[in-house]
């Protein structure tokens, strides 16, 4: 039995689909408010709970052999990115788990002081690696599925908002490829107790993205390039009324102000270990946007 947290998220629901296609039994950890109909329809066992509650985590972990931690947090890095994962690892240890797959983030090991999600991910990586449990840690760059809404907006308006340096490099990964890597991690020998940077096959500049949209929709892009000080201004104002949101914006600012790309040798190692060619961003978008 696989336990998948974040089962209704962009990665999680693709992971559940793949596992069910391969006839594995899956327990999907969802909230009562989550949109989990599709997972149920595919034959996943639905576990309703909240990852902020240790009791729910303990109950969800009973009888599972594999855990895939794929949940995210909007602004509660301490409880969701950190504590919930520590509790999942403790339960995994207590239950003699066979393999734990943790979705971290590219750059988790760079010591970004102002980004609570990155700090939480790094602390969890360390805790998992020292736990004695079989593990695979995946550090994805940005997900291609994040761009689908922006692409739809571009289709209608031709507009693209680019905050920060247009020359920053990125290795956006096909969310479907990432899900496949997640699922294969528990059985590919080269993935045992390893940490992988996960990106797409090409290093893009952020300014390449509106050009890709432009090719797909055959429309000239209108790029609005806003400087990072816009985010800083917003953070300053938010900090006065909502400190949690200010912290979340710290992670957002870190994402916008740094480069998140995988080296060629990292991509080659990934393709070799998991034995399939990674998909480009343009190919992913064309499949989903049917163009
Ligand atoms: N998106 C990216 O570009 C990116 C890049 C690198 C790494 N990652 C990492 O990849 C992982 C998955 O990202 P994603 O973009 O697929 O996530 P996502 O689409 O934002 O989904 C988040 C998931 O977490 C669940 N969740 C949130 N709070 C919860 C709670 N209190 N109890 C139970 N479930 C809860 C959500 O459930 P609901 O459906 O109920 O909201 C949802 O299923 C995250 O760990 C993220 O840090 C993402």
Report what the structure shows.
The structure is a single chain. The model has no long low-confidence stretch (mean pLDDT 95). Strands 3-2-1-4-5-6-9 form a seven-stranded parallel beta sheet, with helices on both faces. The chain has a two-stranded parallel ribbon with strand order 7-11. Strands 8-10 form a two-stranded antiparallel sheet. It is an alpha/beta fold. The radius of gyration is 19 Å and the shape is globular. It starts with a strand and ends with a helix. The protein has helices spanning 10-21, 37-41, 54-61, 77-94, 116-129, 148-157, 175-184, 208-217, 229-241, 243-257, 264-274, 281-289; strands at 2-5, 26-30, 45-48, 66-69, 99-103, 135-140, 159-163, 169-170, 194-198, 204-205, 222-226. Helices cover 46% and strands 16% of the residues. The structure holds NADP nicotinamide-adenine-dinucleotide phosphate. NADP nicotinamide-adenine-dinucleotide phosphate (NAP) is lined by residues 6-12, 31, 33-34, 50-52, 70-72, 80, 103, 105, 140, 142-143, 146. The site of NADP nicotinamide-adenine-dinucleotide phosphate has 23 residues, from helix 1. Pfam families: NAD_binding_10.
């Amino acid at each position: 039995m696989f336990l998948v947290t974040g089962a209704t998220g962009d990665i999680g629901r693709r992971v559940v689909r793949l596992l069910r296609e391969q006839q594995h039994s899956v327990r999907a950890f969802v909230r009562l408010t989550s949109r989990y109909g599709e997972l149920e329809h595919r034959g996943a066992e639905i576990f309703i709970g909240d990852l902020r509650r240790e009791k729910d985590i303990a109950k969800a972990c009973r009888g599972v052999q594999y855990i895939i931690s794929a949940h995210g947090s909007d602004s509660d890095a301490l409880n969701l990115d950190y504590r919930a994962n520590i509790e999942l690892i403790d339960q995994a240890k207590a239950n003699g788990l066979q393999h734990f797959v943790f979705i971290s983030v590219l750059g988790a090991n760079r010591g970004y002081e102002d980004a609570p999600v990155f700090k939480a991910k790094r602390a969890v990586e360390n805790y998992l690696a020292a736990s004695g449990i079989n593990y695979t840690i995946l550090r994805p760059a940005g997900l291609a599925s994040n761009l689908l809404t922006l692409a739809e907006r571009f289709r209608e308006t031709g507009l693209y908002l680019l905050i920060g340096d247009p020359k920053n490099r990125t290795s956006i990964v096909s969310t479907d490829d990432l899900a496949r890597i997640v699922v294969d991690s528990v059985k590919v020998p080269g993935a045992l107790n390893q940490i992988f940077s996960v990106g797409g096959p090409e290093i893009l500049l952020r300014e390449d993205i509106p050009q890709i949209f432009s090719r797909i929709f055959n429309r000239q892009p209108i790029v609005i390039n806003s400087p990072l000080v816009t985010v800083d201004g917003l953070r300053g104002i938010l900090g006065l009324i909502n400190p949690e949101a200010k912290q979340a914006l710290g992670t957002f600012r870190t994402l916008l102000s740094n480069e998140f790309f995988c080296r060629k040798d990292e991509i080659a190692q990934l393709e070799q270990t998991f034995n399939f060619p990674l998909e480009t961003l343009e190919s992913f978008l064309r499949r989903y946007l049917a163009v």
